[in-house]
């Protein structure tokens, strides 16, 4: 089995560390929603690997381990009841149009998992925004079932849905531990923070790219609260609701699509936090974080080049 794996995949230590960090989030998703999480993840991963293989076989290259990261991340951004065919379409779109069309791993401008999730969010709104599942609790939770029961969207809603409707905010404890419905990977802020701690400890992710979006998000929320703008939740409720933390930890820190210059990283992250907050509060989409990251993916190369140009100009002035 090991030899077969090595014959298919190129070794990427950084991607493997990201996979390790996703283990607690994945186990949490199974506990909250059932074993369908793993089945959906397996189906999406198989089609993701096969799609990339079709592009690599002509040049006799191996499939990148990054495709596993992309497949798992995409799965964790989906509702538990997402139809398999929807997940398959999403991963094929992400690999083809957000990765291989740019030349494969290391050349992509957009995060493939995020591009795939956004495509599905816009193209298939019903399974992506309405068909939620309830969260299991107690022992053994979702480990004893295939899929938790469907959420009654008439009498119940996700945390972001409640906030948008101006309803009573859920207890912070529920948002932190994971007793709230939503996409598979966003259920527990605690498990996301565990993954973040591992990525930072192993130096797999840049702390600046994690901290900057949080500062931007909390900052703009605080300003709007002070300005008495209606329907603005407390910064902490906004931070723990929805997929913002998940996007910050796993998408914003993507080393391929994020800027390389230190100053550019701060600008990039701050703007992601601000844009995500503005879209959530004033836009028609509650999933502001994914749009914010993709928007800033577009400007990442420009930020790097702009910072380099400024630094070069300063050096010339000093030596002149």
How would you describe this protein?
The structure is a single chain. The protein is mainly alpha-helical and 320 residues long. The protein has one domain: Ammonium transporter fold, CATH 1.10.3430. Helices cover 64% and strands 1% of the residues. It contains 15 helices and two strands. The protein has a two-stranded parallel ribbon. α10 packs parallel to α13, α11 runs antiparallel to α13 and α13 packs across α15. The longest helix has 32 residues. The relative contact order is 0.11. The mean pLDDT is 89. This is NQR2 and RnfD family protein. Keywords: Flavoprotein, FMN, Membrane, Phosphoprotein, Translocase, Transmembrane, Transmembrane helix, Transport.
Overall CATH class: Mainly Alpha
- Strand order, sheet with most strands: 1-2
CATH domain topology:
Ammonium transporter fold
CATH architecture: Orthogonal Bundle
Structural class: mainly alpha
- How many helices? The count is 15
The proportion of strand residues reads: under 5%
Count of the separate structural domains: 1
